[in-house]
Amino acid sequence: MTIMSFLLLIILYLVFFLYFSGLNPQELTIYFWPGHSITHSVAIIIVGAILLGLILGYAVHLYGTVTHMLKHWRRDRQEKKAREVAAIYREGVGRLLSGDVKRAHSLLQKALERDPSRVDTYIAMANVHLQEGHPQEALTLLLKARSLEPRSLEVLFKLANSYEETGQDDQAQLVYQDLLLIENDNRKALRCLRDLHIRHDRWQEAFNLQKRILKAGPGANRLEEEKRKALYLRYEVARQGIEADESDQAKGELKEITKQDPAFVPARVSLGDIYRRQKRTEDAINVWQDGYRTLGKSIFLSRLEELYLADEDPASLLALYRSFLEDRKDDLILRLCYGKLCLRLEMVDEALEQLYAVESTGVESRQLHLLLAEAHRRRKRLDDAIAEYKKALGIDSPRLTLGYACDVCEEPSEEWQSRCPACGTWGSFSLAGREHIQNVPPLEMRPIHHGEREEWNEGGE
Fold this sequence. Notes:
24% of the residues are buried. The chain has helices spanning 3-23, 42-98, 101-114, 119-131, 135-148, 153-165, 169-182, 187-199, 203-216, 220-243, 247-260, 265-277, 281-295, 298-310, 314-327, 332-344, 348-359, 366-378, 382-393, 434-438, 452-460, and strands spanning 27-33, 36-41, 404-406, 412-413, 429-431. It is mainly alpha-helical. Strand 3 and strand 4 form a beta hairpin. Among the domains are: 23-115; 325-400, Serine Threonine Protein Phosphatase 5, Tetratricopeptide repeat (Alpha Horseshoe); 402-439.
């Protein structure tokens, strides 16, 4: 508004005031409270009221403008601070990812001091402490982050994972349970808690969680894997029932598992174990025989061998082996197991026949060489026995080698290597089994006094 417009308004207002005063010359008395009043002309009172309203309105407007300006200033200041903290945080995370842990620590600590309410900074700083080998400090930061955002899934997962890494599985379990209270069908939390129970052999709890995982609907690419895991956990629950003398219930479970997956070997083996424990020998034999004929696994042969020999019935066991050989003439594992049984029964010639049949195929096996060595020893063929023992021990060469193993992953190697092919560590190969030798305390050495050697010799005679 220009000055001329403002003066014009004032002139118009004065003209209006004079005109209004001329029309209303009478006076008006207004009482504020008893004994206190003012008396003026009607025009002055009306104009005064208008001016007072304008002043009050302007004051309210001025207050609103100042308040808005203050809020805007504070917001701009907070946004500027947030941008600065975010930039420091990003640089700190970048340093952490690049491996510069020391610089990352400094930057993230600075970001945390500038803004102690950022949860992501607490998480990043906890990662720094974990890499520095300070797990307790990391847990303290994560607990602080949890107090700021109790329902943050990211914080809860990181906290539970940190508890697991520090061996505090009970605390990790509680955090996973809290997480599931927030999101009942969180599949990642269900799997983590299930794996935690598996690690501590809490099979029933793990199986219950696995059923929840399947109910939550795993992705199509994981569905079969999760179904298989449910089967394995169901088996472990049944096996635990056997150990707790709940054989009848466990037997029913194992039968159902075998129907569901006929190729699952442990269920057939354990079912036969239950029958044997219940003195139902024929049922145990039928289960293990059917298991071997169906799946061809040597564990069934071992179970049958234990049962028949415990009942002092080697003839039936030999007949069984021979019937298996008629059906599976090319099964080298069967011939190897049969050869071992013949050695056990002192049927050395038949054992050698079976073992030679395996050897003739060009198989190189430590077990085969050990069995051949034992057969030759029992036939007093000491040179042949020694040759086979050498092959079994891996010393069938002009020079003796003790072998090497990686100190990190225990990968074995005949020759020393500068880098482990399994874990990729350089300079980690040492003499195999050296820890069993070098950790033994040395013998106490002392001088032999005069006459002691003669005493020992006399005692030996």
